[in-house]
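Incident log, support desk, overnight shift.

02:14 A customer reports that sequence design results differ from what the structure should imply. Their input is reproduced verbatim below. On-call engineer (initials T.W.) acknowledged and began investigating.
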């Protein structure tokens, strides 16, 4: 038998050879067959080495989405776009924030928490610089950014083809809510926020602190930032439950502190903590929300595409026996409930759901797990600056060409006539018709845009629950007369087919002075 002293040199020599072989393997070209699959690398190391596809496919996807968005999506079909732009222009002119209602004659002076001031300034600026093409191109850029981020971040959990397919379905599902309004500018933040929280929960760690300033921006763009706070609570609870007993206190402390930080960041607005209360006040409007377009319940006849996707997802889950943790199931059910109650929740559901199910799916189904991307532009190990610069430049050039082509081919794009009673308002101004107006709900935005105080408009909250309910329930002659007399109305601006027009036509106290396919004007006799 050999002594220990004689074995030692052989051991040292074998270790040296192993080290040299490892060095040779690491130095092999990335494109070689041996270099692609390193022997002895653990699954965790493979995961860290994956090249996530922010690549040519993602950039091509961005150009495609941008082109479809500016040419095919109706960014200007919502009447609230008018008053959002008008509010932004008012703030830029006055260099102040509105603290009380300044746009109506029925709620003048009532407190108004304008949660969307930053987005309104952005929309107003793009309109002043480029006309109606500005908000459309801006909307196209935001939509493209949203889904490129969505694809990139989801491809960290699912293989690139699955992520790309899911992104396309999500785009179709949410497309009806792509409007030139503040909520659209918050979509990229929703994607990043959800993806980062889901990843932190899956890795049993605290979310990155750079998300806190993102929450502050979100809180100034749109009131939907409260969704981010709810998601923080849900993912935090999941992380705490999943943590080992010895680690549970540490994980709980980290997530609670992050939640407190998010709450404080959400209060960094001109209105402070008041913005946190607006979501409650809005949903407290109760049954009258069904009269407000984006807050109405889902209708399977008009929202057939969304219903088809939801039923297909349910069928796939039943067929394949998808297993998801209880906390995420509760989050999915909550989002689905919100979507069925208020159609604007459908777009949020489309953006958030894939990040809730991606990690459980790739744990359960191996074919969905991410793989090395063969055409990387960004690489965690080697940053290919030249290729990346060329690809980004090509994407920028293609986007500019699309935007220029759009501007040439569609110079007259503007909000549709159904929400733009321009001729009727011009007639009223030309005929010197003055005094308080009684207007259709969808005409309120345009009246604000023209500087005419409204009876009611899309802001809803400054008017109060009682007033809004009284307006929508004025469905007979007595209620209409009582309502207009109570507020001293001297003229009307209503849709031709509304029941109110028939009442004013037949009333001896009113006279029709103008009518077209969009609006009818009456004045008191």
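02:41 Re-run completed on a clean worker. Output:
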């Amino acid at each position: 038998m050999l002594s220990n002293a004689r074995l030692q040199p052989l051991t040292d020599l074998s270790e040296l050879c192993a080290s040299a072989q490892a060095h040779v393997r690491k130095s092999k070209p990335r494109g070689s067959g041996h270099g692609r699959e390193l022997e002895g690398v653990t699954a965790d190391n493979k995961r860290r080495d994956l090249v996530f596809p922010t690549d040519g496919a993602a950039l091509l996807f961005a150009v495609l989405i941008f082109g479809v968005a500016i040419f095919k999506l109706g960014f200007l079909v919502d009447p609230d776009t008018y008053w959002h732009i008008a509010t932004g222009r008012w703030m830029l002119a006055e260099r102040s924030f509105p603290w009380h209602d300044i746009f109506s004659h029925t709620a003048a002076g009532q407190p108004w928490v304008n949660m969307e001031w930053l987005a309104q300034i952005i929309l107003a600026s793009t309109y002043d610089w480029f006309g109606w093409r500005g908000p459309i191109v801006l909307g196209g850029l935001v939509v493209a950014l949203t889904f490129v981020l969505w694809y990139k971040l989801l491809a960290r959990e699912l293989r690139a083809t699955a992520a790309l397919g899911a992104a396309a379905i999500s785009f179709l599902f949410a497309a009806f809510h792509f409007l030139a309004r503040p909520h659209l500018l918050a979509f990229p933040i929703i994607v990043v926020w959800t993806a980062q929280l889901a990843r932190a929960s899956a890795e049993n760690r605290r979310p990155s602190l750079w998300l806190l300033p993102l929450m502050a921006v979100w809180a100034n763009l749109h009131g939907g930032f409260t969704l981010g706070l709810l998601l923080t609570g849900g993912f935090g609870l999941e992380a705490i439950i999943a943590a080992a007993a010895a680690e549970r206190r540490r994980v709980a402390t980290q997530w609670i502190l992050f939640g407190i930080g998010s709450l404080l960041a959400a209060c960094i607005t001109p209105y402070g903590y008041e913005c946190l209360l607006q979501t409650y006040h809005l949903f407290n409007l109760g049954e009258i929300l069904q009269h407000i377009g984006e807050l109405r319940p889902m209708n399977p006849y008009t929202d057939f595409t969304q219903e088809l996707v939801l039923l297909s997802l349910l069928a796939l889950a039943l067929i394949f026996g998808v297993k998801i943790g209880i906390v995420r199931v509760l989050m999915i059910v909550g989002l689905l409930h919100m979507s069925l109650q208020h159609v604007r929740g459908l777009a949020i559901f489309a953006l958030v759901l894939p990040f809730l199910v991606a990690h459980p799916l790739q744990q359960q189904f191996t074919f969905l797990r991410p793989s090395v991307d063969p055409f990387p532009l960004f690489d965690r190990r080697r940053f290919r600056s030249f290729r990346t610069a060329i690809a980004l430049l090509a994407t920028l050039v293609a986007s500019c060409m699309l935007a220029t082509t759009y501007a040439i081919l569609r110079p007259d794009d503007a909000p549709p006539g159904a929400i733009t009673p321009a001729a009727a308002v011009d007639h009223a101004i030309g005929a010197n018709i003055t005094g308080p107006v009684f207007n259709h709900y969808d005409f309120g935005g345009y009246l604000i845009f023209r500087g005419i105080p409204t009876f009611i408009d899309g802001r809803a909250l400054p008017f109060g629950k009682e007033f809004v309910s009284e307006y929508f329930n004025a469905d007979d002659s007595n209620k209409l007369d009582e309502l207009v007399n109570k507020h001293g109305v001297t003229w009307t601006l209503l849709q031709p087919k509304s029941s109110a027009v028939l009442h004013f036509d037949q009333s001896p106290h009113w006279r029709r002075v103008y009518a077209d396919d969009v609006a009818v004007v009456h004045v008191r006799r």
